[in-house]
Fold these 3 entries.
Entry 1:
Amino acid sequence: MKKFNFSAGPSTLPEEVLQQASEAILDLNKSGLSLIEISHRSKDFIAIMDESRALVKKLMKLDDDHEVLFLQGGASLQFLMAPLNFLKKGSKAAYIDSGNFASASIKEAKKIGFIDVLASSKEANYTYIPKNYEIPLDVDYLHLTSNNTVYGTEMHDFPETSVPLVCDMSSDILSKELNFNKFALIYAGAQKNIGPAGVTLVIVNKTLLGKTGRDLPSYLDYQVHISKESMANTPPVFAIYTTLLNLKWLEKQGGVSAAAERNKIKADLLYGEVDRNPLFRGVCEKVDRSLMNVCFFLNDEEKLKEKFDKMWKDSNIVGIGGYRSVGGYRASIYNAMPLEGVQTLVNVMKELEKTA
Amino acid sequence: MKKFNFSAGPSTLPEEVLQQASEAILDLNKSGLSLIEISHRSKDFIAIMDESRALVKKLMKLDDDHEVLFLQGGASLQFLMAPLNFLKKGSKAAYIDSGNFASASIKEAKKIGFIDVLASSKEANYTYIPKNYEIPLDVDYLHLTSNNTVYGTEMHDFPETSVPLVCDMSSDILSKELNFNKFALIYAGAQKNIGPAGVTLVIVNKTLLGKTGRDLPSYLDYQVHISKESMANTPPVFAIYTTLLNLKWLEKQGGVSAAAERNKIKADLLYGEVDRNPLFRGVCEKVDRSLMNVCFFLNDEEKLKEKFDKMWKDSNIVGIGGYRSVGGYRASIYNAMPLEGVQTLVNVMKELEKTA
């Protein structure tokens, strides 16, 4: 019996994507060869790469200034590549400290240049998204983190500004519609809504590149990857192919707007129960709640934790333990989590209330 | 019918590895979860990571000073990380220019510090391995590339020196026994003898780190990855697991020494035919011939290429086209290529001679 996997990332993928990926390991397109042993310069793989990039552009409605790259090293390497490619020598950039990954991105950027942290919610253990900060006009970019998996907060609005926006969208990309063309740079580790771990999606406005005065190492230079169409070196073949399968699944399900509707329904159902059920409470400010990661506490852990944990495990639920620095529970309900999974968890919460 | 895939990388993998990887995409260890949707912090994945690192140490007979890391970004990112971690500020390093990847590593290192290129075979289109150069004692390390896939040359001896050795072993690692403990740093993209594309094996002598005076970005700092046991960020789960399967296969086949014996037999068989058959000739100096990538030309391409190409394709052979800058043919015969595949190619070459 299929389990409902609420892990924060790597996370659940559609059953048909797993099936197709599994088959391609044995035989890709009836070629007699495995996906993972063909040359990345083969016609078959170049077609996979081209289709993947084109489908990201289509699903996100990207204009011609925006290039799609599939890189390695996760968002962690992008913490470094963002300032290297967008922060001019001697200039400064602005960051918002809205969670532990935002904080990590600031730490890396400070090794490259001057970083102005405009606002932070650290003093409240990152339980809200900082707002109402002033954006200086003399910064090269403003760096944002759109969703925080650890605390379950999400940016529901983006600042209107002439300053170029750089955003780590690792954990809510493709979950809702946005004008992605207004961003100078978007990056996202694949292992939530995009595909399996091992590839990083980068979307970059190429007209803004090449202005920092830095002589960059090749792998850290977006312009190198653009000129080589993400094939400057051997790409992570399996992760890109499985990403393509997952993007095709998303398209078949109606694309990003339809996913957004389903995500809203799932999140409303689960937050509704967290708020209604007197045994539970949410972790963060309601207005900033994430539609991807629903974090909540049991009010009386001492009395009920053991019982609740047994109940959800018995219901084929896995992966709802909270992050180590937060505790409690975290249910990650990315695009691939079916409503049935959320309903199952809600039923367990109701059952606990009845029997507690 | 299974094809014989002579691709240079990504390259052929053992059938049982493909089977096991394919199954794990659907269900890992009968857990009811896919390999690619479990958390990298789960007990199952931590066990995979630990076993992979331990098995590399065992197969390569590494001592306790040498740490095993699984990183992303390919050898290309190591071209940068090697000097960042081993080249002191204001100091210099020595490089040998033995091929196009060696040349690329020099280009990246020159962005970090002073690089002394001790010898190059570029003027002979890299058809031999430079030898008899003097190694200055005041360099922080000597960088070597042990095998060149493009031209089919391989280092059969390493210099005896007190200077720390850094080696890109992407295309011959695990193919023969060496005293790996004498190296300060070894790195290798996985997609030849290690596993699928998407992970880079790094072996580093940790006692030599932390001496450059550089404040490194986290992802580029070996010490960060060592302290986090290759989990500083989400690792490429699929590539690491499939690497583990492949390492287990290698161990079951008798380990590195047994692989070396098989590789010698395969290479002797194919080079023997290249030298015997009057229709063919080898690309590079015999003494430097690679046991992994056998490069050869047809003497009369105009007359025989079409016929030969049809013959090997009809024999279920794929991937023996030469690299674009070299032309001719290249048969990559890594650990996973069975003797039967090499024999099939040799038979086609003999058949061509008979019917030409």
Entry 2:
Amino acid sequence: MTFGEFDVIETYFTHRFAQRDDVQVSVGDDGAVVAIDPTEDLVVVTDTMVAGVHFDANTPARAIGHKILAVNLSDLAAMGAEPRWFSLALTLPEIDEEWLTGFSTGLKEMSEYYDCSLIGGDTTRGPLTITITAHGVVPKGKALLRSGAKPGDWIYVSHALGDAGLALAVQQKRLAIPDQHYRKVCERLFFPTPRVALGQSLRGIASSAIDISDGLLSDLGHILKASRVGARLSLDELPLSLPMTESLSQEQALQLALTSGDDYELCFTVPESQRGLFDTLVAHAATKPICIGRITSDLNRVVLELDGEPWQLPAGEQGYQHFAFSSERGHDGQS
Amino acid sequence: MTFGEFDVIETYFTHRFAQRDDVQVSVGDDGAVVAIDPTEDLVVVTDTMVAGVHFDANTPARAIGHKILAVNLSDLAAMGAEPRWFSLALTLPEIDEEWLTGFSTGLKEMSEYYDCSLIGGDTTRGPLTITITAHGVVPKGKALLRSGAKPGDWIYVSHALGDAGLALAVQQKRLAIPDQHYRKVCERLFFPTPRVALGQSLRGIASSAIDISDGLLSDLGHILKASRVGARLSLDELPLSLPMTESLSQEQALQLALTSGDDYELCFTVPESQRGLFDTLVAHAATKPICIGRITSDLNRVVLELDGEPWQLPAGEQGYQHFAFSSERGHDGQS
């Protein structure tokens, strides 16, 4: 048994601390929601990346700068929030000018592209650790939560899954794939795209949402737990990239798409009543979300089907556990 | 020459990043100020503490939990902000239940006393590093900044200085003092009191403010630089505790009070025109700020006087430099 991040937070923090009345959503979703204004809520998200845990010495500094903001913007996207500002806490073992140039370039590109301004932070000396706290806004009461899915709702993912996990598996020499495929999946691992516009467009349409940082089954599991529902997934519909389908067996590909993290796609649910509106919304979108299943009333149970037959993951592969000391790496993402 | 925190932030971040129009104060004050509402501004501060840099293995876990929130609340106080919410990024090498219990107890006490709610965060595995981003609010345009001091303004500090530095010096065996004094100054090092109520009461009265995290001369220096002024300090007025005056020579005491950090008192300036209002305000306060000097027009120059005579620090003692690799410890505080 591992002592997971969720246990740490629940045991020592969530249940012990008194809360202000203006806190609408606290620990336990992709971000927090607090009341700031009669018409808008503030959404606050925090993600940390630690050297040797979330990235290694081979990761380009520009990718680290890109990714630390991308994973925070992905949390904002999962809440339906419009990004505004972020703070940076940077702990550095030394002043490496080349690294700082690359890191700040990646960060600046994301900051300016998504119009999310760096407003402050703290620089300290110590083992390389980077924390960003990002702020966004949503119209009052419109934040997307994990807790609104209902039986019968359709389950979507925003784009192909498993690429980042494939890149990591190749890096760690657990899998070998052709070079041109490796380059493509490395882009996805190093430079994830937060689904910021999609997240905002889902306000009032999606009944729940989360971003996939730990693997589809693990993150969908948070929706199921928070919403007290289950899910049935049709694996035939699971979107897979060319590198995945051309380099791997079907079982390998499905396993990665279901359990590997770092893709930062959105997973969300749409009620039948909103499906027409949703289809219209995405009709002309460049990246079209894919419907992969349906919510059931079977609490916390996920049924997987392939070609109409039940399908099971190899034993022990149930998605990534945060802060698993038995595992090789930790992982980021607000609990 | 050391490559300080200020250079890192200015070189790689401040001047390179485009900013949104709603950012009113960014990197370069105790916190950032952003517009959220027609009547209120949001103040955001961030501070990191790293094991082996900001605290050592002898620091009680409860003190670490107290202090990481206290230093953030102190930044909010220096901006005149009312605390509201905070996020916690906690990187842990292992799950140590005793440590987590102590840490979360210290954090909870501060959180509840100052009505500042824990709203989220991230728990990761890695070298012990703690970052808090705290949020407060001020009436629109009323945040206290470093940049408003004018020649003739009176310079105040909120309470006795140097105690935390004395505790550290004793811990590091650079000084020896009687036990009963050591216990008192340790309280100040481990459990600093953020001057939250004082900070808010200074809105509209103080022309500038900062919290003393790095030493009076260093932090007053930020006010002088931001306000483009100088200062004359009367060291006879510098408030010193009994442990300081009873255990140290006058020179040792003044040196600590001027240059040692970690006191988290406020330093602020009050224009002559507001002095009557200010005196009325503090007449019945339990902790009375002390006037220690006056702002001059002599850009960035600090004149020290004792008994009406010029006084100089021993060479090389000019206050703490953030992120100084030549130094034994790094330091927290937004640049």
Entry 3:
Amino acid sequence: MNNFNFHVTTDIRFGKDRLEELPEALAQFGKKVLLVYGGGSIKKNGLYDRVTTLLSEQGFDMWELAGVEPNPRVQTVKRGADLCKEHGIDVVLPIGGGSTIDCGKAVAAFALSGMDDPWELVLGRRGYTGPALPIVTILTLAATGSEMNVGAVISNPETKQKLGFGGPSMLPSVSFLDPTNTFSVNHYQTAAGSADILSHLMENYFSRVTGVDVQNRITEGLMRATIANMRIALKTPADYDARANLMWASTLALNGLTGVGKGGAWSCHPMEHELSAFYDITHGVGLAILTPCWMAHVLNEETVFQFATYAREVWGITETVPELAAKMGIQKLYDFFKECQIPMTLPEVGIKDERDFEAMAQQAIDHSSIATAAFVPLQKADVLAIYQACMTESQFV
Amino acid sequence: MNNFNFHVTTDIRFGKDRLEELPEALAQFGKKVLLVYGGGSIKKNGLYDRVTTLLSEQGFDMWELAGVEPNPRVQTVKRGADLCKEHGIDVVLPIGGGSTIDCGKAVAAFALSGMDDPWELVLGRRGYTGPALPIVTILTLAATGSEMNVGAVISNPETKQKLGFGGPSMLPSVSFLDPTNTFSVNHYQTAAGSADILSHLMENYFSRVTGVDVQNRITEGLMRATIANMRIALKTPADYDARANLMWASTLALNGLTGVGKGGAWSCHPMEHELSAFYDITHGVGLAILTPCWMAHVLNEETVFQFATYAREVWGITETVPELAAKMGIQKLYDFFKECQIPMTLPEVGIKDERDFEAMAQQAIDHSSIATAAFVPLQKADVLAIYQACMTESQFV
């Protein structure tokens, strides 16, 4: 086990009927609030009205950054930070899924960064040590875990870049996690969000660091809980416990718990970020498409034990020949995503040909340490091969 | 799943060779430090010298509360708080296991409580809302989880009471978790501490609240990691990864992660606290003795499914008849504790007869909500029966 720090101070308020606590949570920072939200689903489901009515009654002044994109853009961050500076905002309140929260976190940091260009902030990657406005979040989608970590992912359509960045000041101070706010998330987004959770768990799980039983057993448990409750939530969208388990799993998957003591670079996220950057596809779907093909590509004599362990512990595979067990585990994951009606090839999400693969593979290498620090280091040719394998349906056993 | 708060702000510094960070961790609170430690094992293994030399070099002023008992006493808390008041202590630094840390937390709270009698503080139980001096811990035993939670357990030999109490201000600000500090923990204390970890996991696991897959899968995983690494550490005391897994498991078992969203009262701890209060036995050993007998006592038609799940997920029992599977799981736990050379009857730890059982059973009821809120509510006759079952060796299948 590697040395690590674990210092995650977000105040989690989990459960239903807790919105009345919001004014107190915000007021500790001030009365001028920037609401951040996306395409208006919170207006349809009534959450917007409930929040703004409550805050108006309690004497808060509100400004709005609306229309945050599913892959939030650097121009939107600029727009939000301008509002903060112009109106002396005290606290940023993203209401939405990971994209909205990521955008709110970037706004909070850029507003106090002293930088002229928000893209400069993003290009600093994980090294932001400057201040940020306080952040209080209301989560409406179980997926990214952004509600309890220091990171954010921002896209720049002009340069076709989608990059993660962050720093300690960007950790949300308070996050409201009400599973009922995810009842209206549709089948496709529920599946995609859950695939994102599973991807975070698998990215942290497959590591070259040994002696990490605690982290591995926790991560396997979270994968099993996610799979089981994903099935229920897709059939019965208003099943409270299923939504609650998905929501809490999403938070724990990426708050440090499953990754501490391990280190190394992720594999599928850097490859997916290029798909989203070039084609603006749904992040979780991109991850679902890539992951089984990545697994098959990196399955070798050195990794087979870990994939066989994964197959046994997560999918209950009893096959004792490690290579076959490993392949059966990969097949199970692929079949499960198909069962959840996730499109499992790149053409199905609009990437009809390979014209951008060279450029995307090069950027995946350039924008991450995938070539040196990943579970199995991936060179450009490896990334290309994985993209190509995702062009058609797969059979792994 | 029940509503819950999760707000655990302790700054965990996990790993070896990190003591050089201690001055910075303390200095944020001031330069006057109260060292709290137990029977002197930190003097034998060199930790005391390393800490005091380092802090002297950095200009800290130190006072000492030494000789904290394995079941720390209220008089010791008073002695420590008097030192804090007399010398204007800025920060309390317990170096030791759960007893030492619990004592340090109680000292930190009582010093600022404004109360005259430390037992008054303890009798307030979980309701302490007053201030406490900042607490920085150096953990030397994987067991209680006190390094990352708000609770403390203090004994009063005069009244034969051992009670848990706590409040938010008693959460350690920084905790140093260096697995090498546990290399010198002997076989008996390693086994007892690990049994305490397992007990915390089982107390949280067996609950009447449903729809908590995330918590249950995490808890099963922590139990498996604890069992596997307990075996290694008992054979090879200086195995770094085994000690690291036990240490991190001990912290996560009782920092809220495994208990949030569930509620209800614990079962074995209230019964064990009376054993310790009357006979001053080792807490973890008392728990190991009680737990299998408690399980057998509460196994019934309503609980059999949960015990069978526990048997399958933790011990790999493949038996499909639920009642038999459940009993096999209980037997596995009992046999495992015996394999670890934990004395598994009360007479082996000096409780030779039943003369105090009536009084202890009554106190277990009076000092907890075991009779109303436990997984299976236990009345005085139940507690008596469990104590009596612990007088001889058991066979569960």
